[in-house]
Amino acid sequence: MNKTIKGFIMGLLVGVFFMVSTASLAGSIKDYVLVKSEYPIYVNKNLYESMDRPILNYEGHTYVPLRAIGELLGAGIKWDEKVRQVEITYGEQSLENQAFRNIEVSGTQGNYTITGEARVYEATFNYEISDGHVVFFQGFKTTSAGAPDWGTFTLEFNIPKGDLPVNGTLVLSLFEESADDGSIINELPIVLEIFP
User: pLDDT tens across 72-87, in order?
Assistant: First the structure.
């Protein structure tokens, strides 16, 4: 009988402990209920539309994807993995970072030439051209020299006029892939052209 009472008390104490810890954990979790917005958003008189990245609403506040709106405004949006932060550049775009410098862009209406210098591992970097919805080009380029030296490079792209966005921003991203884990590092977004 004594064992039964001890077992009951131990079971009761363990049950109370789990109830208290579960209740305190549940109190520290906050739920955010987002709903898809049915109203349109215009950026510089251009309608924002995306099936993949919808407009959301939370308690009367509108939430849109930062990269998509940034690209429509001609702002550079990048994730800096090293310091784990989002960086937004607007207006005069900075065309350099620790891996890329002396970048020059020429061309219009789908025909672009980009020259510059890169200090990248094994003299190779990656690139991608996108309007935030469609990826037009992606690949890699080898420069004239590998890090720690600065090597020169030239990229040329030709996008057929019928494939150009009706309204949106063409952005070229230059970046490296980490030798450790393949993640994107030293990304440099470059606005090629804004289509009204």
Answer: 676 767 666 777 777 7
